Amino acid sequence: MKKQPSSNFQSYVDKGNAYVKQKIRMIEKISIDFFKFADANPYARLMRLHQPVGTQLVMMPVLWTLVVVSYDIIHFLCLFIIFIFGAVIMRGAGSVINDIMDRDIDKCVERTKMRPLANGELTLKNAVKFLLVLLSIGLFILLLLPPKSIYFGILTMGLIMVYPLIKRYSYYPQVFLGATFNSGVFIAWFSVEQYISFVPILIYIASIFWTIGYDTIYAHQDKKDDEKIGVKSTALAFGDKTKEIVRYLYKFFVFTLAIAGLNANLNIIFFIVVLIGFFMLSQQIDNVDLNSPEDCLSKFKSNFAFGMLMFVGFAIGSI
Fold first, then answer.
1. Helices 53-69 and 73-101 meet at what angle, rounded to 10?
2. What is the pLDDT of residues 127-151, one digit of tens each?
3. For residue 164, what pLDDT band results from cuts at 50, 70 and 90?
4. What is the CA radius of gyration of the chain?
């Protein structure tokens, strides 16, 4: 006969399970309450707090870099806290700048017509005041970092201000977005190191390829409205060749990321994870329905899971 577990032991197990379930419910409630607030508050929507995937994707290359450059887990966590707050604030500031410049265009696009400036919930004056608050907070966070990180942060802010204008004149705003979106790699690198190396350069270049790929898929949501109002994007530039071109972009991304791993002396686990990630990206582009805005958004959001997989690869590969 099997020995029955003691009642005391079972009691401890039951209490432990109850405690874990309680904490999970508490976290779920906090998340639900937060997103209810973000959906209801026009300022929260203006800085896209209700759509965290943008911030998540901004953070991915930064996390990869921090894993490589940090001294230990405590050092990594301290930097992570600084950068996650910085990413939320600066992504929010970038969204406000974008909505200020695009407030008339947004009224003509189905996906963006209910944004706070486009639908009149907030005035231009409201948005400008809010932007100044966000920029002030962002500057304070940036000043916690070394001088070279501050310089790159200021450069990034300049690029963020220019980005909304690019789609008015070029069919390749996603290229500029990639260069802007991923400059946090250098801010992260110089938060620890004094000198540049091939590692952050390669992570940065790889991340640009990745951003162009997933944002081209994202841009297919608006292609019909964009054609009507004259807004340009790689979705329109690539047209029927989008899948073929994005597939090549993902190949360049994976190859460049692997070279970064070699330069960082990462172990074999990293390269196995990269191969798994390449399979994920291949499935993404093979299965996406570019004529379905809902599917394009879903595939775009799936890049967060991919980015986290690469983070695990960098973390284990650095051991």
1. 150
2. 999 999 999 999 999 999 999 999 9
3. confident
4. 22
pLDDT in tens, 61-119: 999 999 999 888 898 999 999 999 999 999 899 899 989 988 888 888 878 888 888 88
Number of Cβ atoms within 10 Å of the Cβ of 84: 16
Q: How far apart are CA 308 and CA 153, in angstroms?
A: 24
Q: Rounded to an integer, what distance in angstroms lies between the CA atom of residue 94 and that of residue 88? A: 10
Residue 159 contacts by C-beta under 8 Å, 6 or more apart in sequence? 176, 179, 180, 183
SS3 for 201-222 is: HHHHHHHHHHHHHHHHHHHHHH
CA dist 80 and 87 (Å) reads 10
CA dihedral 98, 100, 104, 106 (to 10 degrees): 40
**Helices assigned H by DSSP within the chain:** 7-40, 42-46, 53-69, 73-101, 103-106, 124-142, 147-169, 173-181, 184-190, 198-219, 223-229, 234-238, 242-263, 268-287, 293-301, 303-317
Q: What's the confidence (pLDDT) of residue 168?
A: 86
pLDDT, tens digit, 9 for 90 and up, residues 249-304: 999 999 999 999 999 999 999 999 999 999 999 999 999 999 999 999 999 999 99
Q: What does the DSSP assignment read for 46-69? A: HTTTT-THHHHHHHHHHHHHHHHH
The pair of three-digit structure tokens given for residue 9, joined into one six-digit string: 């032991």
Is residue 173 a contact partner of residue 215, using CB atoms and an 8 Å limit?
no
Amino acid at 279: F
